[in-house]
Amino acid sequence: TWKWVVGPMFLYLCERLVRFWRSQQKVVITKVVIHPFKTIELQMMKKGFKMEVGQYIFVKCPAVSKLEWHPFTLTSAPEEDYFSIHVRIVGDWTEGLFNACGCDKQEFQEAWKLPKIAVDGPFGTASEDVFSYETVMLVGAGIGVTPFASVLKSVWYKYCHDATNLKLKKIYFYWLCRDTQAFEWFADLLQSLEAQMQERNNAEFLSYNIYLTGWDESQATHFVVHHEEEKDVITGLKQKTLYGRPNWENEFKTIAGRHPGSRIGVFLCGPEGLADTLNKQSISNSEADPRGVHFIFNKENF
């Protein structure tokens, strides 16, 4: 028995030592941005930190808790000179971080007053493979939209600087959320990308659909009244918000018809139930002929 126990215990001890060593490396918070609906963005720098799109880190704030580590998806792109996370205030630890960063105060906070932060990572996810395909479907449900902030930023940086060597040619993005207000910062990112793509006359590079799954009768009435306006009244985007849930069978068949004979990457960050649905659709809509269309499913569950 001891032979079977010693091995895993040794590996666990090594992992803890590595995390302790990483936690001692200096992390500098360069900016704290307060977004609507109690969401804060921490922009940080750390010597030797290298990341890929869609990765995540573990964060510890000793001023809040000396023992607790919490995972957060990186929302910055590798091309940026900092790395960032978005934290929604939903519990005691996040509330403590909110207060420690001085976000509960009205006056401007000096940088030296910001709390110390320990970072472990980054750690890889399936989203890193997004640049291996010419066509991708990105599906984010609720807070699962955060990895795609990094993906979309990085794709746009690569497109602007060296579009000819970028393999990725088309993105279909789906965002399913109960309340778009909780993630208003992401709608701002989509607005910026939408405006820049129109300036470059390439509005077709990114197709996106936002589905509001939690809505009431008053919201539906408001939607009907303002439906003819140029921009959506909820997100401010040209693409109108849809209500309910997507018909995945129709979506897959439509995309398969537009890209015959190609490998299409399907990336999900969302619940297990949605993962099962997309996996089945990926299999059923892939052709047996090797030269036909194939959907390759990748998931990250929470």
Automatic annotation (TrEMBL):
It comes from the Eukaryota. It catalyses: NADPH + 2 O2 = 2 superoxide + NADP(+) + H(+). GO terms for molecular function: metal ion binding; superoxide-generating NAD(P)H oxidase activity. GO terms for cellular component: monoatomic ion channel complex; NADPH oxidase complex. Keywords: Cell membrane, Electron transport, FAD, Flavoprotein, Glycoprotein, Heme, Ion channel, Ion transport, Iron, Isopeptide bond, Membrane, Metal-binding, NADP, Oxidoreductase, Phosphoprotein, Transmembrane, Transmembrane helix, Transport, Ubl conjugation, Voltage-gated channel. It is found in: Cell membrane. Residues 19-129 form the FAD-binding FR-type domain. PANTHER family: CYTOCHROME B-245 HEAVY CHAIN, NADPH OXIDASE. This is NADPH oxidase 2. It comes from Piaya cayana. The lineage of its organism: Eukaryota, Metazoa, Chordata, Craniata, Vertebrata.
